Amino acid sequence: MAFPYKKVLLVGATSGIGRALAGSLVEHGCFVIAVGRRQELLDLFVEEYGADRAASFSLDISKLDAIPDFVKSVASSHPDLDCVFVNSGIQRRSVFSEPESIDMNQIQDEMTVNYVSYVALAKEFLPFFIAKRDTPTSFIFTSSNLALVPILRCSNYCASKAALHHWILCLREHLKNTNIKVIEIFPPIVQTELHDPKHQPDMAETVHGKPFGIPVKEFTKETMEKLLAGDDQIPVGLSNIAFNSWEQQRQQAFRGVVEMMRKGGF
Fold first, then answer.
1. Where is the signal peptide (predicted)?
2. CA separation (Å) from 228 to 24, 72, 80, 169?
3. How much is the average pLDDT of 95-119?
4. Residue 69 confidence (pLDDT)
């Protein structure tokens, strides 16, 4: 099955899984608009794939006030955009048994980048997509297996991804009778700079002599296979364990509550 969207805006495309997926989407025939903070890496992406297949915008998504003007600029420059893929994320240690180590600015930054910025981007792009009416469009969001099962060392990161996951479940339900498909990707731990010593010095680069997480290439292959198959929920690697077991029960309960409230007029 071919990827159904022709022009993809990918936020968080300068490194890691975002960069890998941006390249894979180009190779599957999409025009990709790469978005990130590091202009030099955006320029390299466009140079590699050519201006006939790629473009770029610079944006720091932690600056929420910049998002409305950014969306207006994208919509004006690319009126045929039909897919917004938000992949940005940061992860920091937050262990509350050591309260002296907790930096509240860092806590706020993590929530802003991992959750609030996704909501802000969707809010601004929604009128643009809804106006397309019969044209299929989509939002693709990268959450995490830690949205389903938290771990202790990065408790705030887990909370930010859980918030994102619950919001995505509701957004999909809100938009189910529109032209907008909502897709969620659940990565496991992947070998990217998200986990490198520069950003998380307390983490070892290897576990028992093996690299920490699955290779980016392996993650990209499974993710693209499921995107091409038309899945709207995409667990990858170890994320399949949680997703295919208790997460199914939780989503069944969610659908039951939705139906009950709908019948009650809510």
1. none
2. 11, 29, 20, 21
3. 98
4. 98
Look up residue 63 and give its two tokens.
Answer: 């600056």
pLDDT of residue 135: 97
Write out pLDDT tens, residues 23-61. Answer: 999 999 999 999 999 999 999 999 999 999 999 999 999
H or E element that contains 56: strand 54-58
Q: Which domains does the chain have, with CATH numbers?
A: 7-263 (3.40.50.720)
pLDDT at 195 > cutoff 80:
no
* Closest CA relative to residue 216, chosen from 22, 9, 2: 22
Rounded to an integer, what distance in angstroms lies between the CA atom of residue 152 and that of residue 97?
10
DSSP-assigned letters across all residues of 134-190: TS-EEEEEE--GGGTS--STBHHHHHHHHHHHHHHHHHHHHTTTSSEEEEEEE---B
* Contact indicator for 33, 8 with CB cutoff of 8 Å: yes
